[in-house]
Amino acid sequence: MHESWKPFLQSEFNKPYFQDLAEFLHDEYEKKTIFPKKTLVFSAFTTDLNDVKVVILGQDPYHTPGAAEGLAFSVPNSQPIPPSLINIYKEIDDDIGRHANPTGSLRNWQKQGVLLLNTVLTVEAHRPKSHSGKGWETFTTATIEYLNRERPHLVFILWGRDARNKKSLIDASKHLVLESPHPSPLSAHAGFFGNHHFSRCNEFLEQNGLEPIVW
Length: 215
What we know:
Elements: H1 6-13, H2 16-31, E1 34-35, E2 54-58, H3 83-96, H4 107-111, E3 114-118, E4 123-124, H5 136-150, E5 155-159, H6 161-164, E6 176-180, H7 197-207
Parallel strand pairs: 2-3, 2-5, 5-6
Antiparallel strand pairs: 1-4
């Protein structure tokens, strides 16, 4: 985790809800196969808080072996590109011309100040949303509130119902909020395709004197 997040994280880690969550996770990792591995759970928070320009909010980690790496929608270079990310790349291609990433790794986005955060940070193997309602939603709500308060001119990109439920936490007079259905094959044709989030994000960043993201 990056030093810039320490005051926020230490404050949350000391709260009763997070201590209950930590106890739950300890038992889960002992008895079951949980993704991502423990060392990667907080990978999103290796992004320097002071560099964050864009927040992409997803749902929960990939639940198949080898895919989850603690960054929403991202997979290691060695993994095949998941269907949701294929659809994200399709929308980038239609929106701004061509996506820049040759694999499913989104670490290049992270290096440019994109915080890739899920609303729930862990999952049991092959059981999507199995760690919903255990405390992660409280943690990510606090994260969004902190970003909303501490950082200027952010772009919040909310994909899917779980992410869109966080919209009320964001001051839309200060930040740009972009929302649509999830890029999953089950919902991408219901409004994800054609949302133009990538060009709209970059326009907002440039209007506020910030470098656009190379998507």
